[in-house]
Target: Glucose-6-phosphate isomerase
Amino acid sequence: MDAATLWQRYQDWLYTHDGLGFYLDISRMRFDDRFVAEMKPKFDKAFAEMAKLEAGAIANPDEGRMVGHYWLRNTDIAPNSQLKAEINDTLEAIHRFAQDIHSGTIKPPNAPKFTDILSIGIGGSALGPEFVAEALASSSPQLNIHFIDNTDPTGIDRTLGKLKDKLHTTLAIVISKSGGTPETRNGMVEVQAAYQAANLPYSPHFIAITGHGSKLEKMAESENWLATFPMHDWVGGRTSELSAVGLVPAALQGIDIDQMLAGAKEMDEATRIPELKQNPAALLALAWYFAGNGKGEKDMVILPYKDSLLLFSRYLQQLVMESLGKEKDLDGNTVYQGIAVYGNKGSTDQHAYVQQLREGVPNFFVTFIEVLKDRDQESPEVEPGVTSGDYLSGLLQGTRQALYDNNRDSITVTIPEVTPRTVGALIALYERAVGLYATLVNINAYHQPGVEAGKKAAASILQLQNQIVQALAESNQPLSLAELAAAANAPEETEAVYKIVRHLAANNRGVVLQGDASQLQQLKVTGE
Model:
């Protein structure tokens, strides 16, 4: 297209929201009017399904659950008064608790105030709080935040090492709906051990965010932890940032959680409109469907041109891929749906993978996240009439043009600045876009059987490890890998047996491997 035609297309497809100062540009996606007309019946259905979801329909039949993250920022649309009261009571409790922590009304046993937060969670219980902390925490927050979001011992040691001299003024938040998520439980046990090693009682430093009646809630109550906040049954991990999961750590850091909720509510209202061109989430879903032919044939590259939004791509990776990555559709057909998401930030990527984006395999579309405001104070000129922010903006516009010129499509999302309100709006925008897209491709965005399958497989490996240790304890001679597998009642699992004993031996866990590591058939295993 020539410049005049592109300018007209830009005007035709630019979405603006005056209240949020928000813009969405999908004009550089090469769909045509015929495609839009063909998609209208699908969108009519998607809008209707979304209305049912918000009204309290069972959206996760696997678990018999409603999906109600929209109610968190507008309790007036909650399907009953009990849910409305629970949401409001939780928000009040979060505000009260944060105020008491900041004032020192609630304090550690041997210090006037808490100074740090240690958030222990995984997946949606970590990615949202991490993203918001990176995006919104000030340079001098009310409390500094640290994360344990994996079961990697070295990573746990590194985080605890940063808190060594401040453990006595650190508030630990354990986030798990069931209380049985292994990675979170492991982090909790490790942190409790660190408190005990420092001769500190851990209960006066711990709070829980968990489901009603969970193992974790019962533990927190029996051990007299500082506080417990609910993880609502009807909020999934990847849509939990605007529940207690994200609001508690944000409020403790001093982030304005009311503005986050207000921004999300305002975006919800915009994305509830059942008209394609007036609904930014629908426009995103349209662009995603077009880019991947409704089958996820192209990856989604997220490029925020702002350092504080660095973790937005990681947050979206879970939201999009866990929601949309499904083997079966709602009719039971095998469809292998999903959209792969990756990204870093601009203009770092000018010097990383933009070369491939422009000239390599055309298996992607880009979403640029543009922030209009450069900084609070006036910027110095790095060249006559040019600031660093001008360069950043120029690099975004130039990359967008260079990609389009070589037949690579892009979306541009523009916000005025990174604030609690705009971050809340971004979260709400993508939550709705995922829900609408899922209906377009006839899948359930709100269950995750693949994740559960991985957890079950991990549990079976740990059970096999116990069987191996027992078999070695009962043997009075070295065993080959095959012999050990048979003794552990797992004759078909020799490879898994080898990997388990190799790990145990590397960590001096009472297992010794004898022989040449390149000759697996000749290796012998003994227990110490």
